[in-house]
Fold each of these.
Amino acid sequence: MKLLHIDSSVLGAYSVSRLLSAEVVAEWRTANSQTTVEYLDLAVDTPNHFTADAIGIKTGLQAEPTEAQRFENAVSERLVSQFLASDVIVIGAPFYNFSIPTQLKAWIDRLAQAGRTFKYTETGPVGLAGGKTVIVVSSRGGMYSTSEGGQAMEHQESYLKVIFGFFGITDVRFVRAEGLSRGDTAKAAALESARSDIAVAVGQAAN
């Protein structure tokens, strides 16, 4: 079994999503000792944001791809191949400005390739990357899950569930720590709740 561990926070050692994503991976390996882990830190190894060069070879509009197009295509192929080869993906996804970090979005843009992770049919799109387990570690300074207004402002978990569903992945689980900026007591409660989520997410996904 192959597990791909991804972090995207820019906060380094101060990051809650990094702390908890590492705990998810450790718990998974305890439950599944044969798991091999590959790590990708998107705050350090960030793919370029999507440009025309990134899809230049895919369009086939030019007889001869440019050097920039070859480079960007190689980046996309490396990332999508790594993703497709993984059985489990653990993602540290902090909440930045009501959504996910741009570096995490840049990674997802490289995965969204027709013929690799999805295809279009006469009846609509069909995901091609099913059968995987995705565990998202979601960290938030405020509280968004407990009110209708907060849920309307949240484009982090909702986006990730939609995009992985578009890829055909139905087993998407969330480990959530929110209210982290509301003081030490609230932060401690958020971490305790998240660690309970880890036990559930790993237990359910491993069965």
Note: Residues 11 and 141 are 13 Å apart (CA to CA).
Amino acid sequence: MHLDKTRSAQPGKIASRCVKAALGTFLLLGVGSVAMAQNMVVRSTGPSASSYPAGKKMANDASISLKAQDKVTILTPSGTRVLSGPGTYSLAQGGGTASTASRRLSSFINNRGSTRARTGAVRSAVSAEPETPSNPNLWFLDVTKGGKFCVADTDTLVVWRPDYTGSATASIVKPTDGNVTEIAWQKGSALKAWPKDVLPVANGASYRLLGSSVPQSVEVSFVVLPSQPTDLDDAASMLIENGCTGQLDLLVETLNANSEQPAEG
């Protein structure tokens, strides 16, 4: 088995370049125009899940009837809404109480992406136990997550690790020939550029990743998007259509207003 090693650039420089490149990609999407054109279901569980599948779009005056154990997450023009049954909900009501999609997406791109990626794990105000950081960018490839991964820009793919309190490495195995490429993070760095010169970022390409601080390997299959998403509606639709559920979950969690809406009546 052949082993190729890519060494880190000077401390901090590669991470800085990666953040700037990924941020540039997002800025092309237009942070100020992320508002949804209509309502879209992005997550649905329970007895009525088949009636409200991910990707379903509804008018602003639509109503949703849910049964016990139902929970539906919807991206709306003003943010996210989490609806839990039983009950009937009007999409024309309640949106104003949620945090706006623009503000949450802006935070997702800028503040958390540039700050938390550098500072490392944070500690809870209640407990001394460290909190596991969340992936700060929709397009960062989490070394601990497998499945389909949508790539918006093949030139700026970044590998992110949640535990960056120490130095670490990750082995990337190419299943077709078994060749292994190793990447390394410096202590305190969460980001590493994908070694695209050795491992092309191509549609349908699959790789197995094993981080030195990760309990088990994961297999990632790339889906190269045919075009850059132009807004939040477009991005969510592309993730759903291409089965990139991990990124969709991350998007929902980041935008989630954390407030369940009361049913009518």
Note: Confidence is low (pLDDT under 50) at residues 1-36, 95-100, 109-128.
Amino acid sequence: MSRRTITGFSNPTVKALRALREKKLRKREGRFLAEGLRLLTDARECGRLPELLVMAAGREAHPLLEAIEADVLAAGGDVIETDDAILAKITGKDNPQAVAGVFAEFDTSLDALDRCSAPLFLAAQALRDPGNLGTMLRTADAVGAGGLVLIDDCADPFSVEAVRASMGAIFTVPLAQARWDEFLPWLRGGSGQLVAASLRDAVPYRGAEYAAPCFIMVGNESRGLPEDYEAACDLRVTMPMRGRADSLNAAVAGAVLAYEVLAALG
């Protein structure tokens, strides 16, 4: 463990931390950045500590931050102090928060999910916007979902933008990533109802026959779900559109359905 101060932009550690904003380098290192005391506190409460803690030298004292720092050092991690300008360079944010952490990426295999842990789960196929991904994580946390499954080529859940949008749910919600041809056999290998918002042979989402564990699947923001994916669902539901819009935002649709399923399953 170590505690040190960095004052130069050209420091190799600063360059390595900046590189974590790029997906290719993030995947190579198996590490990701999380910024802000709230996110790091949520992580600590879930038993996850950063391997490296970066703090602004001029920060205000806070007992939660002091607790995180003590735990990181006790676990053999590193603590770095630097100025706001270098912290902004690391996070890519002009007005960065006073603290950021580097975490090891989690196991995101389907086998890490326990389908008996909750009555509902969320799934997203080819979701491209990291803000939507973060919102779905927050929704999953809010409804007590057993996890979020990312199917096919989704935005990277460990990007700075997605982690920030999750408001800490990246640490509280089990997460899995899989291709469709992996996910469907896994789902059919046990209990689980697959539900999608659709216009094809759909029933009203209110009063539909939901069954636990219920996997609510939303599709790509612009294209929706492929037709064969919808055909594989056990239940297709439709939500009324009273205005001129012909569809809801993918993350919003997932939230509406999640609360309806939660109410239906009690």
Note: The longest strand covers residues 99-104.
Amino acid sequence: MMSPEDQKRLAGWQNAAAPLGAILLGQSTQSWEEGRAQYMSALDRLFPAPEGVSFETVEMDGVSAMLVTPDDVIDGKVLFYIHGGGYVHGGTLAYRGLAGRYAKALKARVYVPDYRQAPEHPYPTPLDDTYRALKSLYDAGVAPTKLTISGDSAGGAMVVTMMRKVRDAGLPLPAAGVAISPWADLTHSSKSQYERDGIDPVCSREFLMLLAKEFLGNTLPSDPDASPVFADVRGLPPTLIQIGENEVMLSDAMRLATHLGENRVRTSLEIWPGMFHVWHLFGGMPEADDALRNAVFFLEDAMTKAQA
């Protein structure tokens, strides 16, 4: 049962997203730049940054990024966090809260790339920007054994895609990845896309279909870089997938976990009863704090094993 305060935050999130739906449906004269700015400002107010962290803007091979540094940081430890938003409407400002809590718990510097988004920059630009930013960490000498990747929604899918791109480039793999509520199958053909539609208070199948259209352009929704359930995932590092039981993406996350496991990737899947899309944003809500704690433990354990 959500507290009254968390229910207010959820309602605030829904209200912040409503204008984006109007833009997608062509029912608003507001530009995407304006819509994104208002959405991010609203989420920054709803899910504020914790104390004990600092923020700065950095460049990662030409890609702007938010660098989050906790007061208590272990030198060399880095988390690369990929924000969500359907490749269309997310942004770093909306993630100061979650990235800040991640940084404090992991005692790591957290880099959040501000990749370009559709419809101005459709597929594959968001993926290309994100990979370029990730590769810049390798170029800067970050030790792969102290490097981990996490992300939510579209960013959760990109966790798997970025690890694949690192593998295919012949670079050392990061220690582990955590995919939060991953948008793993843009065909939207799974059971939960229909059964959970209307139950998840944050995402609907219709909204996802509209986002996918803006992002994909003429690219097939089954493209492995857009939908990692269709990708070659052999040889990837340990991966944790966390998904809410109420999510329309539930079946897709389960399929992604099965796909990873069948291809001999060490995989953990957590299904949280009653939880909704990216509930991790709700700092102070027990389920959000517990899920983040589990993610941090998973990453810490993987880094310890990688450095042994």
Note: The beta strands are 53-60, 63-70, 78-82, 109-113, 147-152, 176-180, 239-244, 267-272.
